[in-house]
Amino acid sequence: MKFDDHFISRVRSSVDIVELIGNYVKLKKSGQNYMALCPFHNEKTPSFSVSGSKQIFKCFGCGVGGDVFQFISQLERLSFPESVEHLAERCGIPMPAQEKTDNRESDRRPRLFQIMKLADEFFREALSDAGAARTYLKDREIGDEIIRQFGLGYAPAGSRLRSKLMGQGFSLDEMAACGLIKRGESGDTYDKFRNRITFPIQDLSGRTIAFGGRSLGDAQPKYLNSPETPLYSKSNSLYGLNLSQSDIRRKDFAILVEGYFDCIVPFQSGVRNMVASLGTSLTHGQVQLLGRYTRNVVVNFDPDSAGVAAATRSIDLFLVQGFHVNVLQLPSGEDPDSFILRHGAEKYNELLVKSSPYLDFLLSLSLAAQKDPLSPKGKQQVVAEIIPYLMKIPNRIERSEYVSRIAEKLRLNEELLILEMRKHSRQIPGHEKPLAPSIQTEGTISENTVLAAVFEERYQERILLQVLPELFEGLRTEGIFKAIFKLRNQKREISVLSLREALGPSDLDLLERVTVESSEGHLTEEAIDGSLSALRRMQINRVSQEIQEAIIREEREGEVSDQLDELLRKKEALRRQHIA
Ligand SMILES: [Zn+2]
Predict the structure, then answer these.
(1) For 236-354, CATH number?
(2) pTM
(3) What pLDDT does residue 434 have?
């Protein structure tokens, strides 16, 4: 789909950027703007800023910025037309009837979403007739309300879904692209999910993008998942997040579990800040996704050895992205699902409060693995295992607290442990990577101030009347002001958005930074006037320089040109202007 400008600006003006972004990241008011941890890069202190008055966002760390469309397209990995469509749908603006573009992939996605929606409905309906499946869920104490909320369904035997979708005009290729059918060796196709309870996996807007299936009885594998599809990437999805996001944000921590039921059962009994990792191996993308909502997580994997190994791996990923990690270990043999059914949510919450910081968890693992942990050799091995984790604690006070605790547990001299850490840090220089330097080079304060003021309604007219494009000749902001004056000559609105197309990436970056920063509201008449006069002085200096160069040229070539006279007149005029 291609949309005309009118439609695009209608959608844009119907969405409030603060409200939109607030659905994805935790925003904190700061002056007139809102700040958050950037959803597009890893950071520990917020450099992501949203301006409600200008309806733009900007990350001062990684440089991404733009309006509601840029935000949604980068976050949900949508093309520009798709993000327009997405937001239009969100505010209930009907799509204009238009000719299709020849972009196949983006044409295809809406149809794939439609297929997934139909499959979802089909499974949900099938559950009401599936006695065995209902009994199974009842035995696991899954109530009707939670079935509805999580959209549990049932995939019947045979290939009934395939037939249904064919009847609706969808091709086998499209069904295969959704991961709903499989091809046998002889080329025949059949439903991928058969005789299974189905769990829809949804994106953050609640659209079904994949399924998980639990076999009834002993059929193997016990759990079957959708493959990666154009709609679904496992490493960027967390099960349950679309339902738990607001609770996670409110409580400012998430509980990470392994399985579907581990997520659903606690949710049913009121522990709602749950997400499941969709398999044991957590990915960087999943951690990043969770990081939009909180930087605190309690990892509650199964206490078996696979679960412990998975928990240990996940700690690394969380630490790299600046999370506070606790580990909850339930009594042997229990997972969150079984524990809550047996002991109730209250007991679970008690254990949650007592969950141990990850270093205690790792330390006890390490100690348990040693035959004689307090022998010199045992101590040495435990220290070697723990130090890499100690080094990852960014906060020095927290780190030194741990050093004391570990030293005490191992009956070690604290200084010795610190010495070991020093050795370690020399071995891996720069283990904490600094942020990539941003692409732009700054303009002077005066340029930036005047530039910012141009985008303030109360100053715009006055400044553009006072200023000529030559004022910025040779300066960092020259290109931006040229574009501004061009818009003005065309009598078009001057805004960050209208300038987007006219500017290259580094100019755009600078413009976004300057305008978002100025939304903080420290622009004053005085600052603007001071900046204008500084810029004029700079301009006079530039002309003086040109004059000197022209004089040198004349002396060398022994010939008088008109150019020097012209420059001298220009300088005189500027000087007068400046005094006036
Ligand atoms: Zn960023």
Answers:
(1) 3.40.1360.10
(2) 0.62
(3) 32
